[in-house]
Amino acid sequence: MKNTLVLFLAGVLLVLLVSASCSLGKRGKSEMERMQTSLKDHGIDRFVFTNEQENTMLVVPAFGGRIIAASIGRENLFWTHPDVLKGQGGQRSWISPEGGPKGFLFKPDWSGSRNYSMMDPGNYSVVLHEENSRLVLENTFQVTSNDGLEEYDLTLKRDIRSLADPLQKKSEEGNLSYQYLGIDFMHQLRNNSSRPIEKLLALWCLIQVPPKGTMIVPVKTVEDGAWRGNYFEPTPAEYAAVNIDSYSFFLHGSQRYKIGFPPRSIEGVICYLRKGAGSGSSLIIMTFPFKSDAFYPDRPKEEKDSNGDAIQIYSHLEEGDRAFGELECHSWALDLPPGTEEAFPIKIMMYKASLKVLQKIGEELVCEGFASARLF
Question: What is the pTM of this model?
Answer without folding.
Answer: 0.91
